Amino acid sequence: MDNDLPEYPFAQPAALEPPPQWSELRAGCPVASVRLASGDQALLLTRYADVRQVLSDPRFTRQLDADGAARVTAQESGGVFGAEQSSMTPTGEAHQRWRRLVGRWFTVKRMTAMEPRIAAMAERLISDFGPGPVDLVKAFAFPLPVWVICDMLGVPDSDRDRFAYWSDTMLSLTRYGQAEIDASQLEFGEYLWAHIEATRANPGDDLISDLVTNDELSTLELLGTAQGLLIAGHETTANMIGKMVAMLLADRSRWERVLGDRALVRTAVEEALRFDANPGFGMPRYITEDIEVSGVKLAAGTTVINSMAAANRDESAFEHADDMDLARRPNPHLAFGAGPHSCIGQALARTEMQVALTALLDRLPGLRLDGPAEELPRREGLIVGGLERVMVRW
């Protein structure tokens, strides 16, 4: 192991500021060797074109259980990038079949139909705010997407605190020990297994019922689907809602601009996704064939980390990339990845973020951060980036 390699993920100056290494590497070392939390070595890509190239190549997947693949986390299980999760994740043609089955529940048309119900829930959550200051993450950004994904899957959102804990253990880089992760994942698996079996006996009008009734996925694939959607369906979006509001309030002229022109809600959401300086780990890929990226040969057997967030600050792809332009068009950011493994729930995430922002603008136009943006506490030790709290007043 080369102890002189930089440790990845990089430290940030503050929760809303990007690591200086992003721009340094894009300029001088776009294919950089880094050391992961496991101690293993990987290559980090930071340029837009390179990240898009690798993510769009169907030959390279998230199957990181291959011999010689770098371990992402400090724990042997590897969490969402580990061998157990990989065994429940379809690949190749099976993955495309899975996307067709599950993707019909995440179409733009379906999300548009869901929007009034999501808006009603957002209004209800805001109505339950106390006199302030309020933690926007706990009171709003977390419960909204949890309610939505639980409704879609047919599981009770009253169990959301358990889902959050189970998800965090699956997303741990360094936060949890292996024994705690193992116990948590056993509970998570047993919970979902019982739900799937109950759904077989009494199906309803939800995604899991649809998959069970059609009987096109194995039980193991069903379990992986339910687990993956519960994690991705609330963890990333909940984090992103909190970060989006914090970005807009950190320079309150941004909030005022969207407040005065609601046509900017859609583009402001996209720009928040692009501008996010606290996205977490990125997307790893295991290279199965030799390829060339930025003039560098990547040998088969190499693990590559694609930093979508660093790529989203690439001046060659985005004019004034380090400025938050709330009217930016076009905005081909990579926050949801690219290619055959791009985020299947991106239409849902966009809808939730747009609805959340609109509801806050309508109900709390005087919203402000309760303290300096520089002091916002980051979520540490997890694969996904986020803020532990966003205290606000109005």
What's the structural blueprint in terms of helices and strands?
Elements: H1 21-28, E1 31-35, E2 41-45, H2 48-56, H3 83-87, H4 92-103, H5 108-127, E3 134-135, H6 136-141, H7 143-153, H8 160-170, H9 178-201, H10 207-214, H11 219-250, H12 252-260, H13 265-275, E4 283-286, E5 291-293, E6 296-298, E7 303-306, H14 308-311, H15 346-363, E8 368-369, E9 391-393
Parallel strand pairs: 2-7
Antiparallel strand pairs: 1-2, 3-9, 4-7, 5-6, 8-9
Helix pairs in contact: 5-7, 5-15, 7-11, 8-9, 8-11, 9-11, 11-12, 11-15, 13-15
Explain what the structure shows:
Belongs to the cytochrome P450 family. With 394 residues, the protein is α+β, with helices and mostly antiparallel strands. It has a single domain (21-393), classed as Cytochrome p450. It is 48% helix and 8% strand. It has a 4-stranded mixed beta sheet. A 3-stranded antiparallel beta sheet has the order 3-9-8. Helix 5 (108-127) crosses helix 7 (143-153) and helix 9 packs across helix 11 (219-250).
